[in-house]
Specification:
Blueprint (H helix, E strand, L loop, with lengths): L1 H9 L13 E6 L3 E5 L5 E12 L14 E5 L2 E5 L5 E2 L5 E5 L9 E8 L4 E11 L9 E9 L2 E10 L7 E8 L8
Parallel strand pairs: 1-11
Antiparallel strand pairs: 1-3, 2-3, 2-12, 3-9, 4-5, 4-10, 6-7, 7-8, 8-9, 10-11, 11-12
Length: 182
C-alpha cells in the first residue's frame, strides 16, 4: 500500500500552489550583481542577471505563470500574485514587467527561463531597504526566490567601495541560514 502511494506521488504532475509557501527547498546560485545605494537612507536597487535556480529533486515542478512568487532579500519581501508572469509560446520563458506608471512595485522586471538542468532568474529590483549596510560592508544577507511551494535559497555578500559610495555589489554567494518563518 505504501509503495503504491509513493509511486503515485512520484508521478504527480505539477499543480499550482495557491500561496508562496516553500516545501521543496532548492538552491539559488548567487552570481555577481550590481546596483545603486543611497548611503543616507539605505535604499537600494539591484540588477540581477542569470542566477541559476536548481529545484529540489523531489519537487512537483514550478508553474511561474500560475503560482505566486516572492523574492526575499534580507528584510525585504517582494511578492507577485499568481498569474502576473506571462508564458512564452514554447513554455520555457516566463516574464513580468511592471507598468512604467506603477511606482509602488519594487519588482520592476522578472524573467525565469527554463534550461536543460535548471532555471535562470533575472530581475530588476528597486526600493530595497538595506539600512543595515549603511555602516557595514561585506555582509552576507539571505536571498530566496519562492515560486509556489518551491524555493531557491542562498546568501549573497553585499559590498560597497566605501561608506559614501552609491555603488552596491553582490560580490558572490555565501552560506546563510534560512531566516524566514512563514
Amino acid at each position: 500500500m505504501i509503495a503504491a502511494l509513493l509511486a503515485i506521488a512520484g508521478t504527480a504532475e505539477a499543480q499550482p500552489s495557491p500561496i508562496a509557501e516553500p516545501v521543496y527547498h532548492g538552491i539559488l546560485e548567487v552570481r555577481r550583481s550590481l546596483g545603486s545605494f543611497d548611503p543616507d537612507t539605505g535604499i537600494a536597487s539591484l540588477k540581477i542577471r542569470s542566477w541559476r535556480f536548481l529545484l529540489n529533486p523531489d519537487t512537483n515542478q514550478i508553474l511561474p505563470d500560475q503560482e505566486p512568487i516572492v523574492v526575499d532579500i534580507s528584510e525585504n519581501s517582494l511578492p507577485l500574485a499568481a498569474g502576473m508572469l506571462t508564458r512564452s509560446r514554447n513554455g520555457k520563458v516566463f516574464t513580468y514587467k511592471a507598468a512604467r506608471e506603477d511606482t509602488t512595485q519594487p519588482i520592476r522586471s522578472l524573467r525565469i527561463k527554463q534550461t536543460r538542468d535548471a532555471y535562470r532568474v533575472s530581475m530588476t529590483l528597486r526600493g530595497l531597504d538595506f539600512r543595515s549596510l549603511i555602516n557595514n560592508d561585506g555582509s552576507c544577507l539571505p536571498i530566496a526566490v519562492i515560486i509556489g511551494d518551491d524555493d531557491g535559497f542562498n546568501g549573497g555578500i553585499f559590498t560597497r567601495p566605501g561608506f559614501e559610495s552609491r555603488r552596491l555589489r553582490i560580490a558572490r554567494g555565501c552560506i546563510s541560514a534560512w531566516p524566514w518563518e512563514r
